[in-house]
Amino acid sequence: MSRRTSFKSIFLSLFVSCLLVLGVYSVFTRYDYRQLDNSLDNALSFVTTRINRCENLNTDDRVKSLVRLVDKSNELSRVIKDENELNTQFIQEYCSNQRLDGVFVLDENLNTVLDYQEVLVTWQDMIGVDSISNIPSSNKNYSIRVEQDGKIYDFACVPRQDATGIVLAYKEKELLEAIPKENYFKYFNFKMNGLVVVMENDKIVSSNETSLISLNEKEVNKKYGVVFENTKQFIKATTINGKYYGNKYDVDGYTIYILYPQSQVFNIRTMATWLSVILIFILWGVISMIRVSMEREKERENKLELQEAVKEAQMANAAKTNFLRRMSHDLRTPINGINGMIEISRHYAGNEEKQEECRQKISSASSFLLDLVNNVLDMSKLESGTILLEEKSVNLKRLIQDTNSVLQVQAIEKGIQFEEHFELNHSHVLASPIHIRQIIQNIESNAIKYTQNGGKVEAYYKEILIDQNTIQFEFICKDNGIGMSEEFQKKAFEPFTQEFNDARTSYEGSGLGLSITNELIKYMNGDVTLQSELNQGSQFIVHIPLKIDTSVVEEELDDKKVKTDLNGLHILLVEDNEMNMEIAQFLLEKNGAKITCAWNGQAAVDTFLKSEVGTFDVILMDIMMPIKDGLQATKEIRSMDRKDAQSVVILAMSANAFQDDIQTSLKAGMNGHLSKPLKENDLFSMIQKNL
Amino acid sequence: MKKVWLLTIILSMMSCTLMGCQKIYNNKTEYDKTIVVGIDDFSPYSYKDENGKYKGIDVELAKLAFHKLGYDVTFKKIVWEDKNENLDEGIIDCIWSCFSMNDREDLYQWAGPYLHSDQVVAVKKESGIQTLNDLVDKRVGVQTSTKAEAVFLNREVKELLCFSQTNEVFSALSKNYVDAICGHQAMIQDYVNTDPKTYTILDEKPYESILGVAFKKGTHKKLSKQLNNELQRLGTTGKIKKIVEKYGLNYDQVSVEGEYYE
Lengths: 691, 262
What we know:
The complex is a heterodimer.
Chain A: H1 3-83, H2 88-98, E1 102-107, E2 112-117, H3 123-127, E3 140-148, E4 151-159, E5 165-173, E6 195-200, E7 203-207, H4 217-224, E8 227-230, E9 235-239, E10 242-251, E11 254-261, H5 262-265, H6 267-347, H7 352-384, E12 392-395, H8 396-414, E13 417-423, E14 428-431, H9 433-449, E15 456-467, E16 470-479, H10 486-490, H11 513-523, E17 527-533, E18 537-548, E19 570-574, H12 578-590, E20 594-598, H13 601-610, E21 618-622, H14 630-638, H15 644-647, E22 649-654, H16 659-668, E23 672-675, H17 680-690
Parallel strand pairs in A: 13-15, 19-20, 19-21, 21-22, 22-23
Antiparallel strand pairs in A: 1-2, 1-5, 3-4, 4-5, 6-7, 6-11, 8-9, 9-10, 10-11, 12-14, 14-18, 15-16, 16-18, 17-18
Helix pairs in contact in A: 1-6, 6-7, 7-11, 8-9, 9-11, 13-14
Chain B: H1 2-26, E1 33-39, E2 47-48, E3 54-55, H2 57-68, E4 71-77, H3 83-88, E5 94-95, E6 108-124, E7 139-143, H4 147-153, E8 159-163, H5 166-174, E9 180-184, H6 185-194, E10 199-201, E11 207-216, H7 221-236, H8 239-246, H9 251-254
Helix pairs in contact in B: 2-7
């Protein structure tokens, strides 16, 4: 990985990791806030319930005290009336007995008639006149607890029974409440170390933190450096002891603060965030380890691939060297043979017999050379996958018979019996005739080659119906020749393999035939099997799936003979090679044709242009020529504005006879394609077909 | 790079839009004048919730009515017994806290009535008290300076115990220092609901009062009239009903519609 890519991926990883951590932080912050909200609700509920309970207890205690005082006051009022004891001494004694701290006896205008004050009070300021002004001559009993100057007083005011007025009694109390406010939450431990502060009139009256009680807001701020801040949902208090989160409530006259330390509030968030960081580190570690492992594995694989490639390259190089060595030998051998024969024929000039012998051997050598070149080219195309199979309507029986016609001659010459057996039901199939011919030819010629005089070669041609559109073409070739060893059978289909080395010293083949046959069969999705026994013979079984051509009408004449009479035909022969020109001219003139020669494409175009309409019947056009090639010349002729431009038959002559070459010729406007060297039958058959 | 810029622009536009919405949301209506309403802690008419906000039937009616009249409202908790002094001294502009108009018609400049408020009597079920006549030889507890006190000052009972705080009244009943207590229906109903198995309210009501808003006598004549009309409008348009029912009262029992206005 390049430095830039590595830096990018690190940056991306960091970015994603940060996002993840932030995400976790955010999610758990919300979670903690929700938990805080719940905790506050629960705490508030508890606090208010506790306050109410304590207050109720205090109220009950207060009311008890007040009602008792009212009862004592009523009792005093009754005694004053019944005993006529309206004197200070009596009042004093009564107070002492009843533990009262003072009594005022008032008239209807609330003026003091008599009083005793163990504890001095100014009742008018403490309880107000309005509250009791309607007591005289009514049934109202009024009681109240008052706090003044840090002291607590219970007052009771009841109607006088001896006259119109009020008996007012009071008592100084030690404790304001049964449960002092400061004790409401003393020693209470709230969840999450919560802090509860209850304030009344700007003073802390209760808290679970006792050091805060009795302090007012200023004192608290000064002592603890409290700074409040309102967030959306809560309040945040920053103190010298840390930060707190919570809320403030007003309940029943109290201001209640419930606060939790930040560390407790965001406990889960902190844990989750750290956990996510740790997990990310672990993940990084794991990913790094996996990556390193994968890279090592890849490195190892690359190394293996490299070794494999080196091995293949070495093998290919060896194969190339081997091939070149073989080719060198195989090419030189027939060429030497040809040169040799020419020398011999010169030497025996005049000796017709010797001349004929030399010509035959030259012909044999040149055929071998041509076959070798074709085979090598075929092999190359097969290996590169550039073979183009035709799919055209083929009369399979006729194709086989045509192929066998040559082989039969070979067989007869060798004294071998050649038999062909047909079991074909369909006359036409869709196939590539050249390649079918090549397969049959290679296998049968091998059989003939490796069978001795007096031997027999049998060829069976059969079709097995697969479905209504497809047949399996079965071709069996049996001979009783020399056979093959078991060892050789294993590599029979490999290129350049021949069991007997003497084949390399005579023109008996290049060792490519079977491998080409095997590749072709595979190309056609078929298969080939070989059974052989040394000195007993061999059997090849070939299967090739072929489509049935259902559109063709059965042909009438199978045995139509090719006409060789060219009398009356004027042929424009276009060829740049003298020898080829001479050969072709000889062939054509021998059969009665009139020939005009042109030595290149431009000459052909000019000749045709200058001629009168209908002068030429056929143009035989070489393809590879200087100045103008045959394809261009054909295009130009076809585009001429004259009657015979379209109708004149133009046939290509080319050493290249592959399918794509044929297609190129036809596309250029030619009527057919002949491969060199020209064969008479092919030539005449093509001419006849197009005229 | 172009995509990053485009994203930045879009995000900025969204932020601006959101800020704009926030600004609109924060915009409150400004009032020219402010009125200070004196209230007591008297649920469900006027009280503070746990967040320190004033809530209650009278609080919500006050806000509705005064805002309509172009006034901003400030609520001030007062000592009930000092209500008249606070009014006289201008500490508050009006009293609006379940305040009865009955027998006080000439004492204040009124707006109202806007609702009924009955005085009811609560007893312990075990006491056997069923009518007001049964209270003749009983001790009755009330809060001082309330209508309940005034009602029972004129009724024959054994003793009338007057306490300065409402919770003292309830405590007196729960501890059997009194045999019955009297007060505003809403307040008494709240208390009885805390323990309906123990307490009950007598069917017979000693007093029916009408509630109003009290300004200092001779002042705020125009405003009191405007407020009166506005309260009637709120009644006829169903707003008062909605508020009353929100706080758990039966509107039919407390409505003055048809009785004092159509």
